[in-house]
Amino acid sequence: MSQLFTVKPAFGESALILLTVTKSLIHGHFVLRSKDHADEYVNARKLFANPERFWRMCRLFAFCVDPSAPIDTVVGPARGGNDLAKGVAYWLSQLRFPSPKKDPDDSPIRCAWTDKVGKDDFAVAECHEEFVRGKRILLVDDVSTKGGSLEKVKRSVQKVGGEVVLALTIWNRGGVTPGKLGIPIGSLITKEIPSWPPDQCPLCKDGVPINTDVGHGKEFLENKRMQNRETSIPVGATDWSF
Fold first, then answer.
1. What radius of gyration do the chain's Cα atoms show?
2. By CB distance 3.0 to 4.6 Å, which of 195, 200, 203, 225 could disulfide with 36?
């Protein structure tokens, strides 16, 4: 079998244009899903809200996958990954099966959704388990920083009997490698965006306000307020203000 994917430079250039024109790449002070802080953020929701350009991004994913790659189903992390999985599955089906089949169930690539479990985990939606069990799976995600979400979705797929063979992302910003995930990973854009643990963040030290509209800034500030509140209450005292 040939390689599972090929990401041409033109694909990355097109992806960056799509992110730029939809104002999905923004600058400021952000808290990532990994809890690290960064001065750039890829707000994929802006892209997802633009159907035409989102559809083009999904088509770029499909062009990256080698026609011989054994893919039955596309899966992504809830919530945005579900939309991405649907679009990529559609374009893979169009490229691989351009002619109508007598039995449509014989040809199309499927997509399966995942549900969020708690704050930080995922599970294959029960209604879609049949499209994962015994199938070969392509994982898709918008941005990968440390590979945590992809790893969790991979485990959820394996839990219901699926085999993950490949992962693709729009932007690999943290240098996630195949060794990290145990499967080949490709990205339309591979460019590291610096990030820092909260206690080492230069933006925090400079007093740059944290963006609470995107990312996990609101949650971070709320947790910080609660921690400050707890440490400010003397031992044995009772705080009735809450």
1. 20
2. 195
- The whole-angstrom separation of Cα 41 and Cα 51 is 21
Which domains can be identified in the chain, with CATH numbers? 9-229 (3.40.50.2020)
d(CA 160, CA 199): 39
Q: Give residue 106's pLDDT.
A: 59
**The pLDDT value given to residue 36:** 92
Amino acid code (one letter) for 57: M
Q: How far apart are the first and last CA of the chain?
A: 62
What is the distance between the alpha carbons of residues 127 and 89, in angstroms, rounded to a whole number? Answer: 17
Helix (H, G, I), strand (E, B) or coil at 1: coil
**How long, in residues, is the chain?**
242
Instruction: Phi first, then psi: give them for residue 129, nearest 5 degrees.
Output: -60, -30
SS3 121: strand
Q: Which candidate, 136, 84, 82, places its Cα nearest to that of 109?
A: 136
Q: Does pTM surpass 0.90?
A: no
